[in-house]
């Protein structure tokens, strides 16, 4: 596990964007596993800036996103599909039909998740998976207690996650209670993992996840067992390490 200590959010974003750029340059037809949340927004902005300068070409890249709220369609502003279009895909030359997000509109959880697992297999697996970190150690929407051996599945969100995400919705009742997420097994099968984390409010969980025991109670702790993980964090997030 390599940990980069960045001075602040901007330099964390630049470093993470550097690692993703290197992947795209080395393997133009790579499969990027992408993430939502506020943390990676700066990384996407930086990649867009380099793309606009002519330094990056996403035309042969495929992407698979970690998760999606069950019940939200891509035109709902709170859906993760909308987030990805708005914060990244609409600004680069990626082929939209090669960008995949679990289908939140499919009410049949088993079908939606099996289809997503199939897609990940069809594209040949993930070369580089970008991750954020939830306050309770969740990755994607794998909440504490998630079995490590799961692939894409439907989850009930915890109160803490609903609480953290409600700022994006008008009313707390509007926050979906369930989501489709890649499982820990799917994430662990990625060839490389890049986790971005920022802010003092994440310092405690960063310490617990990466210096504490590997346990399903802290889903991100499993990353200690992956052989190619890079954590890019700012000083504040590393302040308890
Ligand atoms: C959501 C997402 C996660 C993300 C987490 C942290 O729950 N499903 O993938 O990592 O939020 O988000 P933030 O980066 O906004 O703290």
CATH topology-level fold name: Rossmann fold
- Give the strand content: 15-25%
Number of strand elements: 10
The SSE order reads EHEHEEHEHEEHEHEHE
Structural classification: alpha/beta
Give the low-confidence spans: none
Shape: globular
Which small-molecule ligands are present, each listed once? Answer: 2-amino-2-deoxy-6-O-phosphono-alpha-D-glucopyranose
Strand order of the largest sheet: 1-10-9-6-2-3-5
Helix content: 25-40%
- Return the domain count: 1
Named CATH architecture: 3-Layer(aba) Sandwich
Radius of gyration in whole Å, from Cα?
A: 17 Å
Main sheet? 7 strands, parallel
Give the N-to-C terminal Cα separation.
14 Å
The average pLDDT value, as a whole number, equals 96
What is the count of helical runs? 7
Quick recap:
By secondary structure, the chain is α/β, with parallel strands linked by helices. The protein has 7 helices and 10 strands.
Question: Mind explaining what this structure looks like?
Answer:
The chain has 241 residues and is α/β, with parallel strands linked by helices. The protein has a single domain, classed as 3-Layer(aba) Sandwich (Rossmann fold), CATH 3.40.50.1360. Helix content is 30%, strand content 17%. The chain contains seven helices and ten strands. The protein has helices at residues 9-26, 41-52, 80-87, 109-122, 159-165, 184-188, 203-211, and strands at residues 2-6, 31-34, 62-65, 67-69, 99-100, 128-131, 153-156, 178-181, 192-197, 229-234. It has a seven-stranded parallel beta sheet with strand order 1-10-9-6-2-3-5, sandwiched between helices. Strands 4-8-7 form a three-stranded antiparallel beta sheet, with helices on one face. The structure holds 2-amino-2-deoxy-6-O-phosphono-alpha-D-glucopyranose (GLP). 2-amino-2-deoxy-6-O-phosphono-alpha-D-glucopyranose binds next to loops.
């Amino acid at each position: 596990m390599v940990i980069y200590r960045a001075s602040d959010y901007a330099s964390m974003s630049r470093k993470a964007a550097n690692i993703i750029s290197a992947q795209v340059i080395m393997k133009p037809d790579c499969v990027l596993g992408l993430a939502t949340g506020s943390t990676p927004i700066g990384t996407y902005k930086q990649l867009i800036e380099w793309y606009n300068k002519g330094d990056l070409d996403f035309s042969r890249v495929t992407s698979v996103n970690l998760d999606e709220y069950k019940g939200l369609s891509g035109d709902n502003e709170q859906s993760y599909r909308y987030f990805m279009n708005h914060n990244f895909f609409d600004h680069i030359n990626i082929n939209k039909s090669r960008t995949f997000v679990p289908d939140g509109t499919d009410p049949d959880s088993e079908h939606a998740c099996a289809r997503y697992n199939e897609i990940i297999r069809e594209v040949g697996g993930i070369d580089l998976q970008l991750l954020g970190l939830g306050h309770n150690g969740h990755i994607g929407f794998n909440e504490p207690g998630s079995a490590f051996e799961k692939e894409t599945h439907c989850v009930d969100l915890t109160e803490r996650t609903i609480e953290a995400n409600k700022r994006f919705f008008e009313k707390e009742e509007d926050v979906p209670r369930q989501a489709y997420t890649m499982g820990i097994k799917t994430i662990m099968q990625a060839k490389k993992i890049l986790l971005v984390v920022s802010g003092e409010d994440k310092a405690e969980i960063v310490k617990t996840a990466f210096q504490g025991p590997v346990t399903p109670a802290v889903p991100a702790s499993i990353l200690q067992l992956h052989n190619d993980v890079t954590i890019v964090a700012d000083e504040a997030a590393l302040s308890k390490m």
